[in-house]
Specification:
Alpha-Beta Plaits; Immunoglobulin-like; 7-stranded parallel β-sheet
């Protein structure tokens, strides 16, 4: 029996082992099959997660690229756990939510080409400080005020900006794609791009007359084509996700969106992960490089922007290139000391101004995104290492050079087919220090996950016609090592980038032939744009300060200039008497740096600067050195209000501006230090005051709403407080002494207010008085301001409650049954109030939680009652209460 059982048991174990051995390869192969498909169809990040988290049943959002929209829509009907969150039809992208385990099923269908986990976007820092002079934005505002983005639309894709901000007044375009939440970051980005300068001079954005429209970054894909056809010519993206070093679905979508909307320029912040490294791709674990935050920033047809400080030094947190396939990223840098958000916003504002300038110089036609991009890249200042690099791209934004390129029409457009070429002649005059030209084209999207993003390859050459000398573009070494990535560029054929740049130092004068070749264009023709720039030798231009700029007294300011002198040293002086006399700042300034830090004198004056180099004096525009004044509201009465401000001895007058329409406009000029405004004459709520220095304006005050400055009709504040010796200290402050004859303090008595004290107005705006005649219960006071014309203005009432001598005071007594009874205790401990009728029946009971507590007695009958108040220790106070 035992032997039989043993044999049977052994046979069962052997059979079970055989079954397991037979089935294991099937399960293993099934798992292996999914892994192979995941390697092919999953993004690098998702592939890594799938390998470790196959059992994860948590629902997430995923980006799925499919072969056919309708077929995939029907397919996912088989999965109840799958929900469609969005569709971007142009490149057949779905956003779905489902459990992670469901992906193993979806990936096995041929309908799916690519899957990635959708990331959450986040703002990429910004504290609010922006230096508009660093990238010459303030220069174009002052020299070319007509180019301001007027009536063009900029989209700000992130959270929602503050629609009540006075800097956006009248210029917000409603959008169904906006986010529900308003953030200060979005408002700051909108201000840098298109702020109207209403709040202060430094809230005047690069495109300060542009309209703004919101879109939410909860959707990482582009908006539908109808959104951009409004038309939106610029869209700013100051946000990021994780470091994603691959050509993902979002990158494909943005490349496709620019193809479909060829004038829309998409500008992205590069990110603030410059100290980090990618965990996937060719540049994995190379710290400090290839760390753009979001695969959408790997797109070809966009501009990514890193950030620098005020003197062009690339900050370490600024995300660096190259792109996942070795392309030059970021394309530009701009000022942004606390992150790349503001840097992108500056470029977006300037791009909008370029669009306007192109329209106004080309019969209202619209520039292509590739032309705007070519202009921005070609006009940038070389910073960091010489030439293009993976930290600053093609250089630092220079708004003046860019706008001059468009105004002077130093650009070319054309198209080529495969194995064809186009050539153009430009004539270089003598005395040129540098010639620079940049080719850019909008390329068709590559396949999602492609190892190389470039599809249509163009080649740029520059030939000096008289000598047949030929130059090729600058190309970087993109091999995956720090040493390679930091090598200087060399001239060679470029087979990666959609931007190619050639520079020539000290070019010979004469004709140059720009040649564009269609090296590899699988289908049709490829349009392109070229921008070029001549830097004239021995030229000097002031960039900051220029006319209408402001410097602050006793402050350090960065003076900015552009120079092409070969001599690097010059002297710097300033004058505050219109050039009659000059004071030395420095006798040796390095002009090649393009900036100088100056500690301004403690003056309130017009001023000039003079830079002398090679014996030639270069005098700046007239600007001002001044301090911001702080106006106040003297009073705010029903029919009028009074504005007052401190006297500036050097001022020849003051300009008062109001926000009547979309922008602050001059309302009144006076030599006085106050202005009485009738509300029927000026219904505006917002005002500022600017001191005048003859024909120049000093810096304006902050703009303020006169209704929110805490000023009543003459009375600025009125306070009443009980002192330790059981007196009431009354403190009153006037907003202004304008027309005031006397101040009368009054107290409410049984027959109305009676006079306590009256003081004739002499000097000062503050008054005090002590009242020693307190009564138990409510003590109410007011101030009567007696004016010289006989009018009397009353302050609001101030009330104190007093219960000394009684633990509890009940008042008024007798009380009107339609009004509440006040119960006031002399301490804040817990009390219970009870009310009994004359038969001893309890008719009301209430805890005392107020000071004083208001007891509703409307439901009681008129007559005599006994009240009892009991504290937490059982001590009782009682008395008679009459209701009538």
């Amino acid at each position: 029996m035992n032997l039989t059982l043993c044999i049977t048991k052994r046979s069962y174990i052997l059979s079970l082992r055989f079954i397991l051995i037979f089935l294991l390869p099937l399960n293993y192969l099934h798992a292996q099959k999914i892994t192979e498909q995941a390697t092919r169809k999953f993004s690098p990040a998702l592939n890594s997660k799938f390998a470790t988290d196959k059992s994860d049943k948590k629902t997430s959002a995923f980006t799925v690229v499919v072969t056919d929209i309708d077929s995939f829509s029907k397919k996912i009907n088989d999965y109840k756990e799958v929900k469609i969150l969005g569709v971007y039809a142009p490149v057949k992208i779905f956003i779905i939510s489902c459990p992670f385990t469901t992906l193993g099923k979806l990936i096995q269908t041929d309908l799916v080409k690519w899957i990635d986990e959708k990331q959450m976007a986040s703002e990429e820092l910004l504290s609010g400080f922006v230096d508009y002079s660093a990238n010459k934005v303030s220069t174009i505002q002052n020299r070319y005020p007509q180019f301001n983005g007027n009536n063009l639309i900029v989209s700000i894709k992130e959270q929602l900006f503050d629609s009540t901000d006075i800097d956006f007044k009248g210029r917000i375009i409603p959008s169904t794609y906006s986010a529900p939440a308003t953030t200060s970051h979005a408002s700051l980005i909108a201000t840098i791009i298109a702020g109207g300068g209403n709040a202060w001079y430094n809230t005047k954005g690069a495109a300060w007359k542009a309209n703004i429209m919101a879109a939410s970054f909860s959707n990482l894909l582009p908006e539908p084509n109808s959104f951009y056809q409004t038309p939106v010519l610029t869209q700013n993206h100051s946000y990021g996700t994780a470091i994603e070093s691959y050509y993902g679905a979002e990158a494909v979508a943005y490349d496709a969106s620019v193809i479909l909307n060829p004038s829309t320029v998409h500008i992205f912040s590069a990110g603030n992960s410059g100290n980090s490294s990618s965990t996937t791709g060719l540049y994995a674990n190379i710290n400090g490089y290839s760390n753009l935050t979001g695969n959408f920033k790997q797109a070809k047809n966009i501009i990514t922007v890193g950030h620098s400080d005020s003197i062009g030094i690339i900050l370490t947190p600024s995300s660096k290139g190259p792109a996942y396939d070795g392309r030059v990223k970021p394309e530009l840098v701009a000022f942004g000391e606390d992150g790349s958000s503001g840097a992108a916003a500056l470029v977006s504002g300037v791009a909008t101004v370029l669009h306007q300038a192109y329209r106004e110089t080309n019969n209202n036609t619209t520039a292509s995104a590739s032309l705007i991009k070519a202009v921005l890249l070609n006009s940038a200042d070389d910073v960091d290492s010489p030439g293009i690099d993976f930290r600053s791209g093609y250089g630092s934004l220079n708004a003046v050079n860019a706008l001059n390129t468009v105004i002077q029409k130093n650009y070319i457009t054309g198209s080529v087919a495969n194995n064809q070429q186009q050539s153009f002649i430009i004539t270089v005059p003598s005395g040129i220090k540098k010639l620079k030209t940049t080719l850019t084209w909008t390329d068709v999207p590559a396949t999602t996950g492609a190892g190389k993003a470039l599809v249509n390859d163009l080649d740029l050459e520059l030939r000096h016609t008289p000598t047949s000398t030929t130059w090729l573009p600058w190309v970087l070494n993109h091999n995956p090592s720090i040493a390679s990535l930091e090598e200087l560029p060399v001239r060679k054929k470029d087979t990666l980038n959609t931007n190619e740049q050639i520079t020539i130092d000290d070019p010979l004068p004469g004709d140059y032939q720009i040649v564009v070749k269609g090296s590899a264009i699988p289908q049709g023709t490829q349009a392109f744009a070229i921008a070029y720039q001549f830097d004239t030798l021995n030229r000097f231009n002031w960039q900051f300060p220029v006319s209408n700029d402001y410097l602050f007294s006793s402050n350090t300011h960065i003076l900015r200039f552009q120079s092409t002198y070969s001599n690097n040293n010059g002297s710097l002086e300033f004058s505050i008497d219109n050039g009659t006399s000059w004071q030395n700042i420095s006798s040796s300034v390095d002009v090649s740096k393009g900036y100088y830090k100056w500690n301004t004198p403690n003056v309130f004056s017009k001023a000039l600067l003079c830079f002398t180099v090679n014996g030639i004096r270069h005098v700046s525009d007239t600007f001002t050195i001044s301090r911001r004044i702080v106006p106040a509201v003297g009073f705010n009465c029903k029919d009028s209000f009074l504005l007052v401000w401190p006297k500036i001895n050097e001022a020849t007058g003051y300009s008062i501006a109001s926000l009547a329409t979309n922008y602050m406009t001059s309302f009144k000029t006076t030599t006085d230090t106050s202005l009485l405004v009738a509300k029927t004459v000026s219904p505006a709520k917002y005002y500022n005051v600017t001191p005048l220095l003859k024909n120049n304006s000093a810096v304006a005050s902050y703009t303020f709403n006169y209704e929110t400055q805490g000023s009543d009709c003459y009375a600025k504040s009125f306070l009443a407080d009980i002192t330790l010796n059981n007196r009431v200290l009354l403190r009153f402050e006037l907003g202004t002494s304008y027309l005031v004859k006397a101040i009368r303090l009054e107290k409410l008595a049984g027959n109305g207010f009676v006079k306590l004290n009256e003081q004739n107005f002499l000097n000062g705006l503050s008054f005090t008085y002590t009242d020693s005649t307190l009564i138990n219960g409510t003590n109410t006071y007011r101030v009567a301001i007696v004016l010289t014309d006989g009018r009397i203005i009353y302050s609001t009432n101030a009330t104190v409650y007093y219960a000394k001598g009684n633990a509890v005071t009940v008042y008024p007594n007798p009380a009107v049954i339609t009004e509440p009874v006040h119960v006031l205790s002399d301490t804040r401990e817990e009390y219970v109030f009870e009310l009994f009728d004359l038969s001893g029946r309890l008719v009301l009971r209430e805890k005392l939680i107020g000071y004083p507590q208001l007891i509703n007695v409307q439901k009681l009958q008129k007559g005599f009652y006994i009240y009892r108040v009991t504290n937490s220790s059982g001590k009782k106070t009682s008395g008679k209460l009459i209701l009538h």
